[in-house]
Amino acid sequence: MDKVLLSFGHGYSAQALARRLLPQGWRVIGTTRDPATAARLAEEGVEPLLWGANVSAALAAATHLLASVAPLEEGDPVLARYRSAIAEAAPGLRWAGYLSTTGVYGDHQGGWVDEETPLTPATRRGQLRVVAEAEWRAIPGLPLHVFRLAGIYGPGRGPFEKLRQGTARRIVKPGQVFSRIHVADIAQVLAASIARPRPGAVYNLCDDAPAPPEEVIAHAAQLLGLPLPEAVPWDEADLSPMARSFYAESKRVSNRRIKEELGVRLHHPDYRSGLAALLAEGD
Q1: Which helix (H) or strand (E) holds 29?
Q2: Buried (b) or exposed (e) across 211-245, using 16+ Cβ within 10 A?
Q3: Cross-strand bridge partners of residue 170
Q4: Does residue 239 lie in a domain region?
Q5: C-alpha R_g of the chain
Q6: What is the pLDDT of residues 218-236, one digit of tens each?
Q7: Coil, helix or strand for 87?
Q8: Measured between alpha carbons, how far is 107 from 94 in angstroms, rounded to an integer?
Q9: Is the predicted pLDDT of residue 6 greater than 90, yes or no?
Q10: Which of 19, 127, 132, 245 has the most CB atoms at less than 10 Å from its CB?
Q11: Domain that residue 94 falls in
């Protein structure tokens, strides 16, 4: 039976999934805006499709669909361009996934949230994600699964480079905790859902150990044998608007559903395991 994934916005997480699926005989088609990225994807076995191209043939071939593009003020870019084509193809798809964010839950002052927690986003980014989730759900017949991702890290996205360069800081906000997820576990969960589809399902993707961000930086420095970076109060730190928005919310995210429903055993159940793996892999 053919297995063809059409991936809209074939970025960091989607590429990790592709690396898992391609050896199993999957055909993967991924959209990108960058011709250089398209060339690299082709070398990796992914069929690149430049953003804005006609997707009719790709949708006709697809058995599975993944959307990873962040929404804009004017809405979801994938749906703005391809909504009617996706709606037409929806009945023929076996599985569809939308990558969202745990930011849809808003601030819970360090308390726990799960997939049943009401959506009360504290940031504009979170509000746009709530709207985008609803837009994807509104497509008739689409076998949609929503994946709410915690902070993503992995090869090339760990703290080690800044620590080696001496530019890392420990931003301290009392009571602040974040949940995280290694990109290898994102790929694992998506593959598990593809194997056990349940249209309408929502899954939180995070590890077992929500932790203060300064604690993670301190552990990474210890692994490298480097001095502890200076501690900077968050209200004195010169943070980008994006970085500051992360500190507007503090919560612990439950991952019980991916374990109980999909049978997932995390490769990296906490940041210690994940950082050790990155270092061992030469990151």
Answers
A1: strand 27-32
A2: bbbbebbbbbbebeeeeebeeeebeeeebeeeeeb
A3: 231
A4: no
A5: 19
A6: 999 999 999 999 899 988 8
A7: helix
A8: 35
A9: yes
A10: 132
A11: 4-153+181-207+253-268
Cα 112 to Cα 203, 226, 250, 253, distances in angstroms: 15, 33, 10, 6
> Which tokens go with 59?
């949708």
Map residue 170 onto helix, strand or coil. Answer: strand
Residue 165, in any domain of the structure: no
pLDDT score at 282: 84
First to last CA, the chain: 38
pLDDT (tens digit, 9 = 90+) per residue, 69-124?
Answer: 999 999 999 999 999 999 999 999 999 999 999 999 999 999 999 999 999 998 99
Is 41 part of a structural domain of the chain?
yes
The gap from C-alpha 82 to its chain's centroid, in whole angstroms, comes to 22
Q: Is residue 234 one of the residues assigned to a domain?
A: no
Domain of residue 107, CATH code: 3.40.50.720
Record the tokens describing residue 252, joined without a space. Answer: 């612990």
d(CA 218, CA 119): 32
**CA 44 to CA 10: how far, in whole Å?**
12
CA angle in degrees (0–180, nearest 5) for 189-23-88:
65
Burial 143-166 (b: 16+ CB within 10 A, else e): bbbbbbbbbbbbeeebbbeebeee
Domain count of the chain?
1
Torsion of CA 180, 183, 184, 190, to 10 degrees: 100
Whole-model pTM over 0.85 = yes
